[in-house]
Amino acid sequence: MAKGMYLEHYLDSIEGLPCELQRNFSLMEDLDKRTEAKKAEISELASEYIEKVKNLASEERVQHLKKIDSAYNKCKEFSDDKVQLAMQIYEMVDKHIRRLDAELARFENDLQEKLDSGSQDSSDEKQSRNKNMKDKRGSHARDKKASDQDSPKQKKMKNGPNISESLLAMHPSDVLDMPVDPNEPTYCLCSQVSYGEMIGCDNSDCPIEWFHFACVGLATKPKGKWYCPRCTQDMKKK
């Protein structure tokens, strides 16, 4: 449900609340007036009883005390009614507060579901980009393999494998975290796919051929011929 709908429904539910509160407050005000009137009546009856008690007969005394007791009971009745109205007002307002809390909880749940859905969409979009990147790398590998088959005796290109510009711009760790096509060829001492800047070993019999700069401790391409660590060690043995 949209945010506007939650607000609209809640406003509809409390539309009559001000009138109900006003009615109950008016009744409470009327009870206050009637209670004050009874208190004044009790005060007058008490004063009259004290003033005339010596001259009243026993039956008259009893009747006078009954009037005072009746006024007290009526005053208590008004007070009880006022307490009941106060409780009704509290429950009325509390009911709307509880409903507001429930509506807010529902709105927060809906909002969280939308956020979770948005995160999932973002994750799906990222996976789609990774898949596209993987397809590009696989296409590059197939192109390179075809090129190697057409020229088996040619030396590898000086600029390394035909790496796409998007891979060159990526950090090596980003590439390694991407899903890899099991059919894609791997290179270097790390046995990973091609990415970033690479250098080819000048030994035509080198089993690895291409190496990542970082894996062989290079920051820039060296001048002259370059041999990988394995080929260098093999040549020293000879």
Give short descriptive properties of this protein.
single chain; 2 domains; zinc-finger; Herpes Virus-1; mainly alpha; 238 residues; Inhibitor of growth protein; metal-binding; zinc; chromatin regulator
Q: What can you see in these coordinates?
A:
This protein is mainly α and 238 residues long. The protein is 67% helix and 3% strand. The chain is built from six helices and two strands, in the order αααααββα. It has a two-stranded antiparallel sheet with strand order 1-2. Helix 1 (3-13) packs antiparallel against helix 3 (58-150) and helix 2 runs antiparallel to helix 3. The relative contact order is 0.07.
What's the layout of helices and strands?
Elements (H helix, E strand, L loop, with lengths): L2 H11 L3 H36 L5 H93 L14 H5 L2 H6 L20 E3 L9 E3 L16 H9 L1
Antiparallel strand pairs: 1-2
Helix pairs in contact: 1-3, 2-3
Organism: Danio rerio
GO biological process, one term: chromatin organization
Subcellular location: Nucleus
